Amino acid sequence: MASKLVQLQTKACKASQLVAKHANSYYKELLEENKQYIQDPPTIQKCDLLAKQLFATRLASIPGRYEAFWKELGYIKNLWKNRQELKVEDAGIAALFGLECYAWFCGGEIVGRGFTFTGYYV
Prior knowledge:
The protein is an all-alpha fold. It is built from four helices and no strands. The chain has helices at residues 2-33, 44-60, 62-81, 88-112.
C-alpha cells in the first residue's frame, strides 16, 4: 500500500511539473487564438454591459424557442395519432430517447445525493 502511495505521489509530481512547464505557453497560445473575442479594455463596466447583452439576447430568443417547442409537440402528436404507421426505427429512437432521459434523471439523483447510492448494501 505504501509503495503505491509513493508511485502515485511520483506521478502527481511529474504531472504538476509538466503543467508548470507548459501552462504559460498554452495560456498565451489560447489567448492569441481567441483574441477576436477579448474586449479591450477589460473593465467591470464592459463585463456588466456584456452580461446585460447576453441576458437580453437570451430573452429575445424565447419566442423562437417557444414556437419550435410547439412545432415539435405537434409533430409528436401527429406521430401518436398515426402510430399504426410507425416504423420500427422510429419506435427504437423514441425508446432510446426515453431511456437516455431516465439515465440522466438517475445520474442527477446520484449527483444530488453527493454520489452516494442509497438502498444498496455492498
